[in-house]
From TrEMBL:
Its cofactor is thiamine diphosphate; Mg(2+); Mn(2+). This is 2-succinyl-5-enolpyruvyl-6-hydroxy-3-cyclohexene-1-carboxylate synthase. It catalyses: isochorismate + 2-oxoglutarate + H(+) = 5-enolpyruvoyl-6-hydroxy-2-succinyl-cyclohex-3-ene-1-carboxylate + CO2. Its EC number is 2.2.1.9. Homodimer. It comes from Gracilibacillus xinjiangensis. The gene is menD. Residues 217-398 form the Menaquinone biosynthesis protein MenD middle domain. CDD domains: TPP_PYR_MenD (cd07037), TPP_SHCHC_synthase (cd02009). SUPFAM superfamilies: DHS-like NAD/FAD-binding domain (SSF52467), Thiamin diphosphate-binding fold (THDP-binding) (SSF52518). Catalyzes the thiamine diphosphate-dependent decarboxylation of 2-oxoglutarate and the subsequent addition of the resulting succinic semialdehyde-thiamine pyrophosphate anion to isochorismate to yield 2-succinyl-5-enolpyruvyl-6-hydroxy-3-cyclohexene-1-carboxylate (SEPHCHC). Pathway: Quinol/quinone metabolism; menaquinone biosynthesis; Quinol/quinone metabolism; 1,4-dihydroxy-2-naphthoate biosynthesis; 1,4-dihydroxy-2-naphthoate from chorismate: step 2/7. Belongs to the TPP enzyme family. MenD subfamily. Residues 434-548 form the Thiamine pyrophosphate enzyme TPP-binding domain.
Amino acid sequence: MSHQIKLTRYISNFVDQLYRSGVRNVVISPGSRSTPLALTFAEYKKFDLWVDIDERSASYFALGMAKKQKEAVVLVCTSGSAAANYFPAVIEAYYSRIPLIVLTADRPHELRDVGAPQAIDQIKLYGDYVKWFHEMAVPSDIPKMLTYVRNQADRAVRTAIMPNSGVVHLNFPIQEPLLPDFSISGLWGHNSPRIVPQMNYQLDETTLTEILTLITDKKRGLLVCGPDNTEGITEAVNHLAENWNLPILADPLSPLRNGSHSKTHIIECYDAILKMPEVRKQVKIDFIIRVGAMPISKAYLQLLQENTDMEHFVIEAVEGHREPVGLKTHFIYGDPVKILAQLANVSLYYDPSYLKAWQNWNDETKQILSEINQEELTEGHTVLGIQSVIPKDQIFFVGNSMPIRDVDSFWFCHERAIEVFANRGTNGIDGIVSTAVGMSATGKHTTLLIGDISFLHSMNGLLLARNYNLSLTIVLVNNDGGGIFSFLPQAKQQSPYYELLFGTSQSMDMEKLAKAFDINYHCPKNWQDYLDSLAQSYEEGGLSIIEVQTDRNENVLWHQTKWNKVGQKLLGLMQKNENVL
């Protein structure tokens, strides 16, 4: 049997099984050694294929699709440094629990470590950041090997998507010649259905009793929902809050702030509420029950650091240890929705005046944060404007550094079903544009809020958006550098090296960049211009950049003025409600 036939049957059975096991999207970066994989995916004709010349951009694009669709996306690249360019996205997927299947073509064993071109050590290239690594066997078409290759494809999909979701890396040693023969009979082989196991992680009675023993006599509790896209989590958290009469601190990356569900118990302004240390000193907490990852808010983290004697519960699916504060924490492992339902069925009801106090603080804070000077256009306004104009059932993707913090402060509860996402696994600025483009590739118009440094760092993603005619509104906050550092201690030291090392002014003409990629461009000068630009971008669809030019120093002063006003207002309210604090 010729090498070409062995290669063709081996790869075609693998590709067929990936589809049967649930894969629908394949992102390919062109290369020679990966030719058999790339051609076979194309020949199969059932996958949605996306081709990106930049592996780093491709990997974040795949991550964006997988994050939105909650299903495994395949990445394919050639041998050598191409695979290394996937590494940042692999790390992000690991910490964000996003299912990716990375297929790296490799030189055959005899060409490794002998100075062959485009050959690096790809064995366990991503270290412990993958759930499973496997070096695939040399292609063969004997029945046992075709069963083997199908088993590996199915295992890859199951491993990637099962809790906790993550990355699988399969390395393919491929000998030349590299061209498959798609004329052979029975190309896609034969496959039998596979059983999909059902997960059922609930609390046993002993554990449930232990939890209740620790909180039944407490007075001041909080439910906290961090970044979490578990199906049914909104209803489950709300149900528990209503039954126990507790406030919910809802992170902007949780689904609780958006949609038609009840928001009576939701405190979305908790980050601004807790900014001032004098306010936090007045807030005493007896216990916290958290689902999802650690919230974005630094003020919330400080609240935990200042209340170390409380009972702290974190509900995790299957496994994990997401607790960066170092508190004595009770980890509860299982299906968060089912565990919350079990807790809600227990008859506990906390003091209504405690919930009412949080609701009053939230209302007063929201009123202050919502105040707008029509002639101004600040970084906080970018969030308020997007929320006021964005149509329902769209995607809002948020860059890191200042944008995500402004979303935490200024994205209020509302009725429209907007999905809010960000790359908070490692909180970096890598691949932000490409991830948002991957989101838009799922068929929904996506709005990206991003800073100028993050934008320049990952603007290769614009090429993919243009090539596939995707629909994306980019709100580009340009403060000519690293605006987040203006809030940190190094900005106050008046060092002669601050601007060089942290300010990092780039002085790029964003309009010219937009023109280079053939993207619609707007540069509003006030609040109404900004709203009009947003509305136009949503009406027209396609690609657009709305550049909001701000000043770093003025931005710091504007935020601090808001937070101080909130803090002073809340301190006055708290003096009247000492008995519930």
